[in-house]
Design goal:
The structure holds 2 protein chains of 2 kinds. Chain A is of the alpha/beta class. Chain A has 9 helices and 12 strands. In chain A, helix 3 crosses helix 4 and helix 3 packs parallel to helix 5. In chain B, a hairpin with a 6-residue loop joins strand 1 and strand 2. In chain B, helix 4 packs antiparallel against helix 11, helix 10 packs antiparallel against helix 12 and helix 11 packs antiparallel against helix 12. The chains are: A alpha/beta, B mainly alpha.
C-alpha cells in the first residue's frame, strides 16, 4: 500500500499545563477527504495547524507524505528545523484560513501569483496565466484586478483557495473555511471544495458543515477534549454514531 | 437675515399644501463662522500691517539676504543633512525594530540598549559628543584586536568633520525614534498575514519584506512624515558645531551685522517654505500605501481639496439664493 498522505501517531501538544492534544492517531490516505468535527476547544484546529507546523507538537509522530514537517528525528529526539527549512516543506501543503488572510495590499491576481513567483521562481507571465486559470476555476476570473476589500467574504475565500492551489500542493488544509461567511455565501465556497475533492485532491477539513462532511468526506473524525472520540465513514459517524459524546454533539448542531 | 417662506412657521395644512417634489433641504447656516472669519482676518491684517511698517524689522535686510549665496549654501547643507539623516534613521530604525521583535534574546537586548541610550540622552549632547569624539579616541583603527596588526588607521579629527559628526548624531538619534514607529507599524499587521505567507512556503525575511512591511507602511508613514518635518527644523541644532547648515550661516551673518531679527525672519521663511513643500510627498506616499484599504485613499489629495472647495462654494451659492 502507498504511503499515507497524513499520518499521526500519539501527537501531543500542551499550552503550559493545559493539554490540548492528548495523543492523536489519524491517517489520511492519498486522494481522500478527511473532515474533523467537534465542539470548539476540542483541539481540531490546533491539530490541523500542527500538520503544517504553524503550531509545534510536543511529542508523537506526525508525517506528511512520509516526512516529518517541522522536525528531524535523531534517536528518540525530534530536533526542530529552522524556519527556512520548515518553509521548504510547507510549499506543498496548501492552507485556507477561517478569516481568509488575503494580502490586502495586493489584487486577487497578485495574491495568487505572489508565492509561485517569489518562492518557486516561476516567471511572472507564466504565473499570471496560471493564476487567471485558477481564478476562472473558482468562478472569479472577472475579479482578478480587485483588491480583497472590494470582494465579498465568499469571493475572498475562493481567492484564498486559488492562492493555495497556485503552489500545486499535494495536500490542502481547510481551517473552518465557511465559519466567517454569511449563510448565503457558504454554498459557493463548498462548491469549489467539492470540485477539488472530485479532482482527487487530498484534503483535511475542519468544519461545522455536517452536510458537507457527510456528502464529500471519505472519513469523518469526531474530536473532543484533545482526543479522537470516533472516526470512520461519515455516513456512520455522523448519522448513527456509537459514542454518547458524538450523539450529544450531533443532536446540538443538527 | 433673509426671510424665506420655508423659515416662517407654517400651519400643518399650509405645509401639506406644498407639493412633495418642490421641497428641497437647506443645510444649517453657520453665521458665527462668517463673523469669526471676519474678526480673524481683521486681526491678521492688523498684525501684518504693523510688522510691515515696523522700521526695526529692516525688510531691506531680509530682502537682501533671502536669496544670498551664503544662505543658499546653508540651505543645501540643511537639505542633504535632513535627507541623509532620515535615510540612516529609517534604514537603521527598521533594522532595530526587526531586532526588537526577534525571538532572539540577544538581538532584543542589543536593540533595547540602543534605543535606551540614543533616546535617553539629549540630542544636543549627542551632537557635541560626536564633534568632540576625537578627545576620546585619537585614532580610528580597523585591525585584529589584541595584536599589532592594523589594516586601516584614520585620524579621528579628520574623519569626524562637523558635517559627518552632525550626520552621525542626527541619524543615530532618529534611528532610535524611527525604530519605535516601525515596531508599532509591524505590530499593527494582523498575525494571520504572517501565517498565510508562511503556509505558502515564504521564508521569514521574504514575508517581512513582501507582506508585513508594505502593510505596516500605512501606519508608519504619517508619523515618519512628522519626523522628517521635525528633522528639517532640528538640523538647526548643528549650528552649535558650525556644520554650515542654514542656521549656522544665519548666525554667522548676524554675528557680524547685528541684524538678529531680520536674519531670523530669513531663516523662518526658508524653514516654513521647505516644511510646506515636504508635506506633498507625504500625502502622495499615504495614498500609495493605502491601496486596497479605504476608498478615499484612492482619491488624490489635490482632488480631495478641490472637491472640498467646490462643495463649499456650491453651498454658499445656495445660501445666497
Amino acid at each position: 500500500m502507498a504511503q499515507p498522505m497524513v499520518h499521526a501517531e500519539g501527537v501531543r501538544k500542551h499550552y503550559g499545563k493545559l493539554d490540548v492534544l492528548k495523543g492523536i492517531d489519524l491517517t489520511v490516505e492519498r486522494g481522500q477527504v478527511c473532515c474533523l468535527l467537534g465542539p470548539s476547544g476540542s483541539g481540531k484546529s490546533t491539530f490541523l495547524r500542527c500538520i503544517n507546523h504553524l503550531e509545534k507538537v510536543d511529542g508523537g509522530r506526525l508525517t506528511v507524505d512520509g516526512d516529518l514537517v517541522g522536525y528531524r528525528q535523531a534517536g528518540t529526539r525530534l530536533h526542530e528545523l529552522r524556519e527556512s527549512e520548515v518553509a521548504e516543506r510547507r510549499r506543498e501543503i496548501g492552507m485556507v484560513f477561517q478569516r481568509f488572510n488575503l494580502f490586502p495590499h495586493m489584487t486577487a491576481l497578485e495574491n495568487v501569483i505572489e508565492a509561485p513567483v517569489r518562492v518557486n521562481g516561476v516567471n511572472k507571465a507564466d504565473a499570471r496565466a496560471e493564476a487567471q486559470l485558477l481564478l476562472d476555476r473558482v468562478g472569479l476570473g472577472d475579479r482578478a484586478g480587485h483588491y480583497p476589500s472590494q470582494l465579498s467574504g465568499g469571493q475572498q475565500q475562493r481567492v484564498a483557495i486559488a492562492r493555495a492551489l497556485a503552489m500545486k500542493p499535494k495536500l490542502m488544509l481547510f481551517d473552518e473555511p465557511t465559519s466567517a461567511l454569511d449563510p448565503e455565501l457558504v454554498g459557493d465556497v463548498l462548491d469549489v471544495m467539492r470540485d477539488l475533492a472530485a479532482d482527487g485532491m487530498t484534503m483535511v477539513v475542519v468544519t461545522h458543515e455536517i452536510g458537507f462532511a457527510r456528502e464529500v468526506g471519505d472519513t469523518a473524525v469526531f474530536m473532543d477534549d484533545g482526543v479522537v472520540v470516533e472516526a470512520g465513514d461519515p455516513r456512520t459517524v455522523l448519522v448513527d454514531p456509537e459514542q454518547e459524546r458524538t450523539k450529544a454533539f450531533l443532536s446540538k448542531v443538527l | 437675515m433673509t426671510a424665506s417662506p420655508a423659515s416662517a412657521p407654517a400651519t400643518r395644512t399650509e405645509e401639506a399644501a406644498v407639493r412633495a417634489d418642490e421641497l428641497t433641504a437647506v443645510p444649517v447656516r453657520h453665521w458665527s463662522r462668517w463673523i469669526a472669519a471676519a474678526l480673524a482676518l481683521l486681526s491678521l491684517v492688523g498684525l501684518v500691517g504693523s510688522l510691515a511698517k515696523n522700521p526695526n524689522l529692516h525688510w531691506d535686510v531680509v530682502g537682501h539676504y533671502l536669496f544670498a549665496d551664503l544662505i543658499f549654501d546653508g540651505l543645501v547643507t540643511t537639505l542633504w543633512l535632513t535627507a541623509a539623516a532620515m535615510a540612516i534613521g529609517l534604514a537603521l530604525g527598521t533594522l532595530v525594530a526587526v531586532m526588537r521583535l526577534s525571538a532572539s534574546p540577544v538581538l532584543y537586548a542589543l536593540s533595547s540598549l540602543f534605543v535606551w541610550l540614543f533616546r535617553g540622552t539629549p540630542l544636543l549632547v549627542q551632537i557635541i559628543f560626536w564633534a568632540y569624539a576625537a578627545a576620546l579616541y585619537k585614532h580610528v583603527m580597523i585591525g585584529i584586536p589584541f595584536t599589532t596588526i592594523t589594516f586601516v588607521q584614520l585620524d579621528t579629527n579628520s574623519l569626524l568633520t562637523p558635517s559627518i559628526a552632525a550626520l552621525l548624531a542626527l541619524g543615530l538619534n532618529e534611528a532610535a525614534y524611527a525604530s519605535e514607529i516601525v515596531r508599532a507599524g509591524i505590530q499593527s499587521v494582523d498575525p494571520g498575514q504572517t501565517e498565510a505567507a508562511h503556509s505558502l512556503g515564504m521564508k521569514p525575511a521574504l514575508t517581512m519584506r513582501r507582506i508585513v512591511l508594505p502593510q505596516a507602511m500605512r501606519v508608519i508613514i504619517p508619523p515618519m512624515g512628522n519626523e522628517t518635518i521635525n528633522m528639517l527644523k532640528t538640523t538647526a541644532y548643528v549650528s552649535v558645531i558650525a556644520a554650515h547648515d542654514l542656521m549656522s550661516n544665519i548666525q554667522d551673518v548676524y554675528a557680524q551685522n547685528y541684524q538678529v531679527i531680520p536674519m531670523l525672519v530669513v531663516a523662518a521663511l526658508w524653514y516654513l517654505a521647505l516644511t510646506t513643500v515636504l508635506s506633498v510627498p507625504q500625502a502622495w506616499l499615504e495614498r500609495r500605501y493605502g491601496r486596497g484599504t479605504t476608498r478615499m485613499a484612492q482619491v488624490s489629495p489635490l482632488r480631495r481639496m478641490f472637491v472640498g472647495v467646490t462643495d463649499l462654494l456650491t453651498t454658499n451659492r445656495e445660501r445666497k439664493g
